[in-house]
Design goal:
With 156 residues, the protein is α/β, with parallel strands linked by helices. The protein is built from five helices and five strands. It is globular, with a radius of gyration of 15 Å. The N and C termini lie far apart (41 Å).
Length: 156
């Protein structure tokens, strides 16, 4: 699939968030939420720093976006994330009524948008999210691989 220049711009912003997570020694996943061509929420993984297993990039971005809009709904908003959302994050996107999810790399261990599960495509919910994958996949994979390579070195 071909993506627009705007799609690349927003995924690049998510990748910058992932790089910030990397610098903080967190699993490098970043997310941004966009409404009408403007980023209204940003987040990167902070599970270690916050000692909170729910502090995923998407969850932080959803909270930031809902605070920006002062509403619990993210209708007509797009989520850009560097790694396929897990069950929890996909559920949050469904509950928030996100319109589209764009993600870079598939997550074979926890993915809920096509890898292990595909909640948005099941049609069991009262909300439908369109999902697009592969946008800046190599860049995201490279950052994740670099992170886990460094983690393995530290464990030796």
């Amino acid at each position: 699939m071909l993506f627009s220049e705007e799609n690349y711009r927003f995924m690049y912003a998510a990748l910058q968030e992932a790089e910030q997570a990397f610098e903080e020694k967190e699993i490098p996943v970043g997310a941004v939420i966009v409404k009408e061509g403007r980023i209204i929420g940003r987040g990167h993984n902070q599970t270690g720093r916050l000692k909170d297993p729910t502090a995923h990039a998407e969850m932080i971005a959803v909270t930031a976006a809902t605070n920006t809009l002062q509403t619990e709904r993210l209708t007509d908003c797009d989520l850009y994330v560097t790694l396929e959302p897990c069950i929890m994050c996909t559920g949050a996107a469904l509950l928030a009524r996100v319109s589209n999810i764009y993600f870079a790399a598939f997550d074979a261990k926890f993915g809920a948008c096509g890898s292990i599960y595909n909640f948005p495509a099941e049609g069991k919910y009262n909300h439908l999210i369109k999902v697009y994958s592969g946008l800046m996949e190599k860049e995201s994979q490279n950052l994740l691989q670099k992170f886990f390579k460094e983690v393995r070195k530290l464990k030796k």
